[in-house]
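*** Protein under study ***
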Amino acid sequence: MAIYLNNVGGTIELVSGNAPARIYYGGGGTSGNFKPADVSRAGELNGFLIDLGGDNYSVKFDDLVINGYSPTTLEFASEALQALFSQTPYTPPPLILEYDIAGNIPYTTLEDWNSFFDLPTYGLPFTSVEIQGRSVYLRGGKGIEVASNLFNGDTTLLSVSDGAYCITSAESSAFFGCSNLITVSMPSLQTAGDLCFRGCTSITSFYLLSLQNAGGECFRDCTSMTSFYLPSLQNAGESGCFQSCTSATSFNLPLLQSASNSCFGGCASVTSFNLPLLEIAGVKCFGFCSDAITFDLPLLQSAGASCFQGCTSATSFNLPLLEITDNECFYNCTSTTSFDFPSLKYINGAGCFNSCLSATSFYLPSVINLGESVESNNVFKSIVGNTISLTIPSALMTCNAGEPDGDIVDLQTYNTVTINLV
C-alpha cells in the first residue's frame, strides 16, 4: 500500500526501541536505512532520523513495513504517530491574494507570478498556482521579500492571506495606497519598510504576529483600523509610524521599546496608552492625541520636543523613570492637574509645561535644570491663578546668582506657590 509521511517542517525522530512502531521501507530490516520512492523535495531518510530540513514535505512509501509486516490497513499505537501519516499527500497551505473581480487578477501562470515577485531574487519560487474565482492560490514559496512598490496603488486587491508563512519582509511602499485592501494576514512578516501600508484606508484587520520593525509612516493614514495588536513589534520607524490612524482606539504593543517622531500623532480616538516597555518617545510622538486620558509608560526615559503636545484630555501620566524632556514636551495638556516625575533631571529647551492650565502640583525632586538656562525659559508659561505645590531640589533656589531659577520666579509671580525643597 502507499502511505505518505506528512510534515510542515523540522525533524521527526523515530528511535528504535522507543518509538510506538518501527518503520522500514522496502522489505523491512533492522538497519533502518531507506530511501523514499518519491520525495516532493530533496530529502533522505537515514536510520530512524527523518530530517525534513525545515520545509514542507510529502514523503511517499510504496512498500511500507511496520514491525516486519506489510499491512493493508494501519493501526497506530498513539494518536501522535498517526498524526504524522496519511494516505493522501501533504498539500501545503497557500498564499492567497483576493481581488475585487476575477478580471483584475493580473497573471494566471506560475512563470508570470514568480516573475512578478522577482523570484528567486527575493525568495524561493512558488511551485504551483491555482485561480479560484477572484482569488489566486500560490504554493511552495519560502522566505519571500515583497519588493518596494510591488503592489503600490493597486486598488483592486482586497486581501492578502499568507497561510504558507512564506512572506518574511516587505520593503518600502510595498502596499502603499492599496485603498481597497481590507485584511492583511502575514504571520511570518518580521520587517515592514517605510510607507509599507500607508494610505490603506479600508484596512480593518492586520494579523502580523511576528512583526518586529516597522518603518517610517508604515501604517500612516490607515483610517479604518480601530485596533492594532502587534505582539512582537519593538521599533516603530523614523517618523509617523501610526500617524493619523484616526479611528484607532487601542494599541496593544507589549514589546515596543522605541517610538519615532509623530509615531502616534493625531490618533485622536485613543483613550489610553499602555506601553510597558517603551523607553524612547520622539518629537510629537503622542502629539494631538486629544482623547487620551491616561499614559502608562513605566519605562519611558526620554521624551522629545512636543511629545505630548495637545493631549488636552490627559489627566494621568505614569512616567516614573522619565529623565529627559525637550521643548514644550507637555504643551497644552490642559486637563492634567498633577505632574509627578520623580526621576526627571533635564528639562531641556523652553516651555515644557506651557499652557498646562489646570496644574496644581509639580513633583520634580531630581531636576537639575529648568529649561536651557537659569533665566526664564517659559517652562510654566500661561499657568495663571492656580494654587500650586512645587517640589524641587534646593539648589534651584540659588542657581541664578544666588536667586531662584527664573522659571520659579515666573511661577510664583502669577500663582500661589508652596515650595517643597529636597
User: Anything to note?
Assistant: Confidence is low (pLDDT under 50) at residues 1-77.
